[in-house]
Each structure stands twice: as C-alpha cells, then as structure tokens.
Amino acid sequence: MNITADLQSLFTWNTKQLFIFVAAEYETPRNSLNQVSLWDAIIPAKEHAKFWIQTANKYRFIDQGSNLRGKKFNLTLHWHVMPKTGRMFADKLVMSGFRLPDEHR
C-alpha cells in the first residue's frame, strides 16, 4: 500500500495530534457500511503531517464467511483531529473502484 498525504493544513494552534487510518469499506445486504481497518497512525505534529509511505497492511483484510468474493470495495483514508481543547473533528477521502477476486484463500 502506498499512501501520500499532506494534512498540514489540519494543524492549528489548537491541534494536539491527528489519528489517521485506512479502511476497506463495502456494502452487504445486511449492512450498508462495513469497515475493515487496514492501517493506522498518529501524527503528533505538523512537520510529520506531509508524508509518503509504502507499507503492508498493518491489520489483515479478513473475509469472514466469504462475503467479499468478487465484491467491490472502497479504500477510505479517515482522519480525526484531536484538539487541545474542544470538540474532535473528523473527515475522510474515499477512493473507489476496487474489487476483490472471485477466488481467494
């Protein structure tokens, strides 16, 4: 997985840190939103908020019950701005167009 992001604009005088994670998101007949967290990190300061990393999944993308075979899914980068004081703010960037193979182990 290659992740490039510039989240420096999220840091203000009131930002303590950012929590970011990448999730695979998909629909099933039972649930309109299912999420599997694949990677996460804490960004402690503005100077670390512009980055490029190449990494393997931190967490396994597990298909319990073979529901994902041949299914479409999105990869979504989520971020949570943790302030020094006040309410936490969250947003995301959705990257669509991914599909799992019909057969996998």
TrEMBL record:
Keywords: Endoplasmic reticulum, Membrane, Signal-anchor, Transmembrane, Transmembrane helix. One of its GO terms (biological process) is protein targeting to ER. GO terms for cellular component: signal peptidase complex. It is a single-pass type II membrane protein. Pfam families: SPC22. The keyword Transmembrane applies. InterPro entries: SPC3 (IPR007653). Essential component of the signal peptidase complex (SPC) which catalyzes the cleavage of N-terminal signal sequences from nascent proteins as they are translocated into the lumen of the endoplasmic reticulum. Essential for the SPC catalytic activity, possibly by stabilizing and positioning the active center of the complex close to the lumenal surface. Belongs to the SPCS3 family. This is Signal peptidase complex subunit 3.
